[in-house]
Amino acid sequence: DQQVKQNSPSLSVQEGRISILNCDYTNSMFDYFLWYKKYPAEGPTFLISISSIKDKNEDGRFTVFLNKSAKHLSLHIVPSQPGDSAVYFCAARVEGGSEKLVFGKGTKLTVNP
Amino acid sequence: DADVTQTPRNRITKTGKRIMLECSQTKGHDRMYWYRQDPGLGLRLIYYSFDVKDINKGEISDGYSVSRQAQAKFSLSLESAIPNQTALYFCATSDRTGGSQPQHFGDGTRLSIL
Lengths: 113, 114
Known about the structure:
A: six-stranded mixed β-sheet; B: 114 residues; mainly beta
């Protein structure tokens, strides 16, 4: 049973516009949510995170929003750049100190010049 | 130089062979992890280790074993490889300080079992 879901396998946006990547989860015991970006032939790299007690975290062009009642989070990239083209994974950390992460399947973002 | 180094980067082998994937890190992190990624799927945790004497199974540990030879080294073994273990394997590390410390990943090992 998938605890972290990214229902859009792909997303295409124009350079300069906003990219919105979505993620849903089912487990109320997650205490942190993270977004990773992955380029081909490279490992995932950490992008931004949010604690379950927050509803927004911003870092430059990247903002993550968390809606706990809906068990939904989203990553906003504004403005989108061609270099943002990558696969984005949503991950959730299991509460309790194990540091275990549960990953979604990923969304492939393409930013067109 | 990469902080988390995985060797080999690519490996093709036959069913039944024993295979070892190695991971070393220069980040000084206590915690290390092994994941696999299959096409169209997210990363799934195989094993994790909080220090040299602490090894834990992840969600898909069957068919795999690990060894934490030192704080900086964590290897994954497939004792008798089978074709459905063909996947992309990632090693990751994290700091013990908790909070929102993210995991840092190596560039992966692409393993094909014929």
